[in-house]
Design a protein that fits this description.
Layout (H helix, E strand, L loop, with lengths): L3 H7 L3 H15 L11 H15 L4 H9 L8 H17 L14 H11 L3
Helix pairs in contact: 1-2, 2-6, 3-5
Length: 120
């Protein structure tokens, strides 16, 4: 399989780039390629739910896992999104500034920011 970064950098336009980003997110989150959800936190939640159901957790255990926060008030869904974005930044050798990060809610938002950073 071709490397994610190579595919992203070879994209000839913003739409193709966004498609590569979306495919990578769905692959990393182990979600179906035809998943329609666009919100990254919702995708992270779907991924965590799929993983916990696979491991045999009950609905109550899943709800508790999603609502439990660490000392900074961050839950596992937000952590999953953050780790995903950090992974993509590393693979594409870019850095999203702290002021921009909070405005990234959807796959399109992330794609647009990354595309701009790569000065395409």
């Amino acid at each position: 399989m071709e490397d994610f970064a190579e595919r992203a950098l070879r994209a000839t336009n913003r739409e193709e780039f966004a498609l590569v980003i979306r495919e990578y997110i769905l692959e990393r989150y182990m979600l179906d390629p035809d998943e329609k959800e666009n919100d990254i936190l919702a995708l992270a939640k779907l991924s965590l739910k799929k993983m916990t159901e696979y491991k045999g957790f009950t609905d109550n255990q899943i709800s508790n896992a999603f609502s439990t926060t660490d000392c900074r008030g961050t839950n596992s869904i937000v952590k999953k999104k953050t780790l995903l974005v950090m992974n993509i930044e590393k693979k594409l050798d870019v850095k999203i500034d702290d002021e921009t990060y909070p405005s990234i809610d959807t796959v399109e938002d992330l794609s647009d920011v990354l595309y701009s950073l790569l000065k395409r």
